[in-house]
Design goal:
Layout: H1 2-22, H2 27-44, E1 51-55, E2 68-72, H3 77-84, E3 94-99, E4 104-109, E5 118-119, H4 122-147, H5 154-162
Antiparallel strand pairs: 1-2, 3-4, 3-5
Helix pairs in contact: 2-4, 2-5
Pfam families: DUF3456
Keywords: Signal
Domain DUF3456: 28-166
Length: 189
């Protein structure tokens, strides 16, 4: 009898834990989202006309350099490698908010989610930063390869479709920023 009651209580407790865990994106998904978002912002900030030479820098006996080509700097391996050095420091600008469209908590840059309350604690940010570093250790090659070309919805394409650390709910759009009368210019009222 006691064992039966214990198993029932334990089962209910376990179910509640699973429901709670399912309502918050994983740290790995948050780290992936942080990385892809930050990389894309840094790439977009580069002058699209800026180029870099890549290829073999060997000089032939006749003094010629063959095999060099010019590519865009923004998505070059050189630029991506420079970004990766400090990208996880960006966790200090993130918070865990409830996406009211899906009912799931997700890690989002605090500027994007100003209108949403969330966890901005040092503990949460430290856990996200550690997850970010772990994610890079495990997925650096795949991430850099993915970022060498542009994508329409990069977080959804990489974090959900390519490596599968986020569910489709994790990468769903946040609700739009509410507009108040104060946001509308007087001449448009």
């Amino acid at each position: 009898m006691f064992l039966h009651s214990f198993l029932q209580v334990f089962t209910v407790f376990l179910a509640l834990q699973l429901v709670d865990a399912a309502s918050i994106s994983s740290l790995e998904c948050g780290a992936c989202s942080l990385l892809v978002t930050h990389f894309e912002l840094k790439i977009a900030a580069v002058d699209p006309n800026k180029k870099i030479e890549v290829g073999s820098f060997r000089v032939s006996p006749t003094g010629e350099q063959k095999g060099l080509k010019e590519i865009g700097y923004a998505r070059s391996e050189t630029h991506l490698t420079e970004i990766i050095e400090h990208v996880c420091d960006e966790a200090k600008n993130y918070k865990l908010v409830m996406n009211t469209n899906t009912g799931k908590s997700v890690y989002v840059h605090k500027d994007v989610s100003q209108h949403l309350d969330g966890d901005e604690s040092a503990k949460m940010r430290s856990r996200l930063q550690n997850a970010c570093n772990d994610f890079i250790d495990a997925n650096e090659d795949e991430l850099l390869h993915f970022l060498k070309s542009a994508h329409e919805k990069p977080v959804k394409e990489f974090c959900h479709k390519t490596i599968g650390v986020c569910s489709s709910v994790d990468v769903a759009d946040l609700p739009p920023v509410p507009i108040t009368l104060a946001d509308i210019p007087e001449d448009e009222l």
